[in-house]
Design brief:
heterodimer; A: mainly beta; 6-stranded mixed β-sheet; 5-stranded antiparallel β-sheet; 11 strands; B: 11 strands; 50% strand; globular
Chain lengths: 112, 113
């Protein structure tokens, strides 16, 4: 079963704009990770945030985690056409952080 | 490049047949996890292997089984294939059971007719 719910399901923006995707989950977690997937291919790891962290940055990516609200957000700044992909959040179990439960994903389209 | 490889890339089978999918983990990684991703959905955890032992299983029937070998490569076997087994099968490797980053392979696209 899917733990995470992602919002929105689809997002279409212009190049240069920022994109924000949200993820909510239901159980206690060890970590939360964001992945990107292009056209049904393998998943690419973007960023991992531990349950005791609140914010993390990596290049144009910013992730926040609010464990009290069981939610996370992924911000992509200054988006590019190459950012067009599906984005998934995945939570690692409290007892085994490498066992991931994925959300349904957000389809991001960045128009040139 | 993640270093995780999967074979075959694509596979077509008919209902009732059996299939074996293979995964070579990244060098130095002793944990392999398998996921099933149906079209338009997020991946679902099938099971995980750590140092050749199964370490956790998702909500999948026993006809889904696996192995991990001494070199930490892995196989996913599915017996008595059903139409709903059509999906992208992904394996991911990591260097332990903790919250380490997972490296995913490109996947095997299985179609059951």
């Amino acid at each position: 079963s899917q733990q995470g719910e992602e919002d929105p399901q689809a997002l279409s923006i212009q190049e240069g704009e920022n994109a924000t995707m949200n993820c909510s989950y239901k159980t206690s977690i060890n970590n939360l990770q964001w992945y990107r997937q292009n056209s049904g291919r393998g998943l690419v790891h973007l960023i991992l945030i531990r349950s005791n962290e609140r914010e993390k940055h990596s290049g144009r990516l910013r992730v926040t985690l609010d464990t009290s609200k069981k939610s996370s957000s992924l911000l992509i700044t200054a988006s590019r056409a190459a950012d067009t992909a599906s984005y998934f959040c995945a939570t690692g179990e409290e007892t085994s952080g490498s066992r991931l439960t994925f959300g349904e994903g957000t389809q991001l389209t960045v128009n040139p | 490049e993640t270093g995780v490889t999967q074979s075959p890339t694509h596979l077509i089978k008919t209902r009732g047949q059996q299939v074996t999918l293979r995964c070579s983990s990244q060098s130095g990684h002793n944990t392999v996890s398998w996921y099933q991703q149906a079209l338009g959905q997020g991946p679902q955890f099938i099971f995980q292997y750590y140092r050749e032992e199964e370490n956790g299983r998702g909500n999948f029937p026993p006809r889904f089984s696996g192995l991990q070998f001494p070199n930490y490569s892995s196989e996913l076997n599915v017996n008595a294939l059903e139409l709903d087994d059509s999906a992208l099968y992904l394996c991911a490797s990591s260097s332990g059971l903790d919250y380490n980053e997972q490296f995913f392979g490109p996947g095997t696209r299985l179609t059951v007719l």
